Amino acid sequence: MTLIRAESCIYSGDTHKTVALTNSLLAIGSSLSPNLRARGLLVRASALRLRGFLEQSIEDASAAIQLLDQRNYDPKTLVQAHKQLGIPLAMQGDLAGAISHFEVALNLCSRVSDLNLQAEIHVSLGITCARAGRLSEAAAHYQNALVAYEKGGVRTELATLHNNIGRLHHDLGEYQVALVAYEKSLQIARAFRYARTESMVLVNIGDTRREMGDPASALTAYRQGLDMAIVAQEPRVTCCANIGIGVSYRIAGEFDKARFHLDQAAYEAERLQLAWESAVARLEAGILALSADRPGDAAKLLRSSALAFEKQGATREVVRAFLYLGDAYRRMGQHRELRTLLRKIDSTIREVSVDWHLARDARATSELLAYAADLNGAEGLLAPLHAAVMSQNRHAKAVRRTRPSLRHDVQRPRVEIRSFGGFSMRLDGDLSDARSWEGQKAQELFVLLLCQPGGKTCEELLEILWPDDALAPNRSVIHNNIYRIRQAVYRDCVVLDNGRYRANRSRDIWFDLEEFQRRSKSAVSEISSNERKASLLGEAVALYRGEFMAGSYSDWALDFRHNAEAQYVSNLVALSSVQRELGNLASAVAALDRVLIADPSNADAHEHAIAIERLRGNSGEAYRRLRNYQLRMEDKARST
Questions:
Q1: Does pTM top 0.85 for this prediction?
Q2: What is the C-alpha to C-alpha distance for residues 244 and 246, in angstroms, rounded to an integer?
Q3: Using CA atoms, how far apart are residues 322 and 365, in angstroms rounded to an integer?
Q4: Whole-number average pLDDT of the chain
């Protein structure tokens, strides 16, 4: 009975209670049957893994295998034991060792008439093979798992399987197919309240949206995944979410915010001995350092990342790290090291297929490829990457040649304008190509008109968009940009009314700033229900995906940006207070962490977060936060 209770606690997310129950069970000693003792060890191994204690998890699973092998007990339990040992080995980066144990488990399944268990092993093998770059093998294992689950009539485990299938399609560059699989997974996970699976799916959706060129939507998915991972007490997913958020901020040019999240991910991954997540965090931190023009720092991070990936047998990721490391060497003028590395890349690249993702990294380091091509006697060096970049360039030119026509259709599309984190537009749900606007000024002008319901005259628009400019353009530039707006959206999205240009709000145009302000105002006036207030605040916070019109430095945009950020911080502080009153302490801390991203020196947020961690009984985390705050204040004092 104790063992059943312990297992149910894992599914509910209470891994601490699982460990306590199994400890009490295993303390019985010799009076416990070897088979029951092995099962207790495996349940505890699973809980310890979920809490991040991988070495202890490996010890328990190994002890269970030894116990079962010696006595030739229940083969089903032995299958579970090899599976429970393979998972933490994979998390530590020992992919070969993990695959070996999963294959032993799969062979043992022939002695067990349990299709669901067989499917679980196929899923584990699929995940590990995919990480090792063996995508065709991964696809075969997922297909076998799908058939087994359908025969066994299992619905719940399909949530994890569809998530993994989606990830595989993502790695193959088939993004729309991946999103369909993720949606199936989300539906099942939410129906059965599987917070852990839901958090993983949301992070994967973030990765896919980012690859599709929509970092704003990606950031929303990552944040939702991060919140859900905290609820599910899933530290690995927390690391992945922080990495995704960091990369999204890097793409948006917000390097300080990117560094904060990547540092968080690296710290947690090292603390929890998550080899893969640690290597990825260092890789992305190295790319960030290159973006911030710090090649020396980048080289240290990228060398460390490449070495970690080599140990894990992840050849594709090794090539990625090498490409950016080579770019760092090139920038520092370390030509001897660079030539050695280029030849190493050339030999390594032949072990993997150059997919769309690698081609994108090669394109990002195009100057490195040009350097390789110019080396004497290096004809053909990095030839697969050169070919991939040329293919991507041809594709980009073909897209640029495709110009949207001015829309005359009677039925107007539903327009969704997002300004937080940078401008983006969706027409009937489809992301619009930024090139259709022919420049940032047209986007800025359209958002300005959305912010000014009363409209502006041509002279007012010139003064706002080109202030104090002796070479300010004439009225024709406004006419040209209005034409570009109508071409990108539809003909009468902007109208001229009594000499004033204004956005045609009689049509279906959704504007995130307007919705953010509406929900923030509703939350402030909500006094009847804390649950309703928390919901409104959460909806408003979710709309804020970064600075208003990031990348624009016009005075009018800066004013709106300052006001929106102040409202965002105010919403988060209120949300933390309400969640604390509701007893949702993890969510209260998560809201305060977001405050600190926007305002790292916010003393109240630091103090409240420390107080809540103490209230939760997390004295170690409270001390770490207190020490980080003290160090930040000391740095601030030295710099003033």
A1: no
A2: 5
A3: 11
A4: 82
